[in-house]
Design brief:
Helices cover about 40% and strands about 10% of the residues. It has about 425 residues and is an alpha/beta fold. The strands form four sheets. The chain has a six-stranded mixed sheet with strand order 2-1-3-12-4-13. Strands 6-9-5-10 form a four-stranded mixed sheet. The longest helix is centred in the first third of the chain and has 17 residues. The relative contact order is 0.18. The N terminus is likely disordered.
């Protein structure tokens, strides 16, 4: 479930106070040494719910005095809104397995999350499990308020039948450079093989830039975030190159400016899509597909291309009364065995130091082979910057993108320059 830019915390808090079973009452901090029953929130994804319930069952069988209850995250306009409201009302559970990295700075500002590195062995557990990528999730104050949990590295999926119909090699498609993709897109549309080449959402929500601008920027920049050492990169050369590529896609009518109500790739209305490994289960039986890394200006080797992580992480709210139990269950549910179950049941990539090698046997199996390219890509992912005003920053970027790149209402360079100034201001405000 994607998110809305509006938080609406006060209204949602009223609903949550009445309907949500929680770990602690009020806004007072819980007990770091507390042990006993806890409640955890899972996402609404069917496979994740099944995985979570199995982990809870196994834990409860071995820990009768520290029982865990799993619930799906309550409905709302967005999971971020629901979590923010629960923090405000003091009605959070003890663990949330659906925490967006972009929202963590806001939750920290609310005083709502436990720094996990202050739990016994927390720093070592996070950095050893996650490897070098863990640093992207460290907050500016030096703490880890989230456990990097699972990623859906964004790649380009393509329809082999459409490519063949357009006269393009379906097994080795020319998609490594921006020029390659533009040329292939023109062949696809002009041949009538598909009405569009790729159909990203033109909607204005802040997170939409994570699926057009950000994967290409991450690749073109060699793996940089949109903020580097406190400096915005919205009008940097890699960002402008990515923006110019997409402007050409829209200007040449290769990507539509209107929203599609269904799934353009599944319906054959688009030959390509920007996806994560979730796509294997969605398209695997209905579309003859292939997958490649996102393009770069000069066609970097596949094993050097970075992309957006599209991660969801685990957080421990301060209102939890039994934080010691929560910390132990968090480690239990992110062990190598638990992560194997998450991988095989959901197809999402556990954020471990080398997921491809850790589970090499599964990726070599018939069930795992389709996921192997995503596992290789998982070693090179870029997260959204862990900075204050994160959501507002991405909304400013999206506003500039919508007017200039999608609709061509103003020059791309000037729009991105103005957005860069707005982002820099948000980074520097007290």
């Amino acid at each position: 479930m994607r998110t809305s830019a509006r938080w609406g915390a006060v209204a949602a808090a009223v609903l949550l106070t009445a309907t949500t079973a929680a770990c602690g009452g009020g806004q007072s901090p819980g007990n770091p040494q507390g042990r006993g029953p806890i409640t955890v929130w899972l996402s609404n994804n069917e496979q994740e719910v099944a995985w979570g319930e199995a982990e809870v069952e196994a834990w409860n069988a071995a820990n009768p005095d520290q029982q865990v209850t799993a619930q799906q995250i309550p409905a709302g306009k967005s999971s971020e809104e629901v979590i923010g409201a629960a923090i405000a009302a003091g009605t959070t559970p003890c663990l949330i397995y659906n925490t967006s990295p972009a929202a963590v700075p806001q939750f920290v500002k609310q005083g709502g999350l436990v720094p996990l590195d202050t739990m016994p062995g927390g720093e070592d557990y996070i950095t050893q499990r996650t490897g070098e990528a863990a640093e992207q999730y460290r907050s500016p104050d030096g703490h880890f308020y989230q456990l990097p949990w699972k990623s859906n590295p964004v790649m380009v999926i393509y329809n082999k039948e459409i490519f063949a119909e357009a006269g393009l090699d379906p097994d080795d498609p020319p998609l490594s450079t921006y020029a390659d993709v533009l040329a292939a897109s023109e062949e696809i549309v002009s041949s009538g093989a598909a009405p569009s080449a790729i159909w990203p959402s033109p909607a204005s929500q802040f997170f939409q830039s994570w699926f057009d601008l950000y994967p290409l920027y991450a690749a073109a920049s060699g793996g940089q975030q949109l903020v580097v050492d406190g400096t915005a990169q919205v009008d940097s050369a890699p960002a402008l190159e990515a923006a110019d590529f997409w402007r050409q896609m829209y200007a040449k009518k290769l990507s539509p400016q209107e929203a599609y109500t269904g799934d353009a790739f599944a319906d054959g209305k688009a030959a390509m899509a920007m996806v994560g490994p979730w796509a294997v289960a969605v398209y695997g039986k209905d579309v003859d597909w292939g997958v490649v890394p996102v393009p770069t200006p000069n066609g970097e080797p596949a094993d050097q291309v970075h992309t957006f992580s599209d991660a969801k992480n685990v957080s421990l709210p301060v209102a939890c009364q039994n934080q010691a139990t929560a910390w132990d269950f968090l480690q239990f549910s992110t062990s190598a065995d638990a992560d194997r179950a998450l991988l095989t049941e959901t197809g999402q990539m556990p954020m471990r130091a080398d997921v491809a090698q850790t589970y090499a046997d599964w990726f070599a199996s018939e069930d795992g082979k389709p996921y192997a390219p995503f596992a290789a890509q998982a070693a090179r992912t870029v997260e959204v910057p862990n900075v204050k005003n994160s959501v507002e920053i991405w909304q400013d970027v999206r506003n500039a993108w919508t007017g200039s790149v999608i609709f061509g209402e103003e020059p791309v360079a000037s729009a991105m320059r103005d957005a860069n100034g707005e982002v820099q201001h948000l980074l520097e405000v007290p």
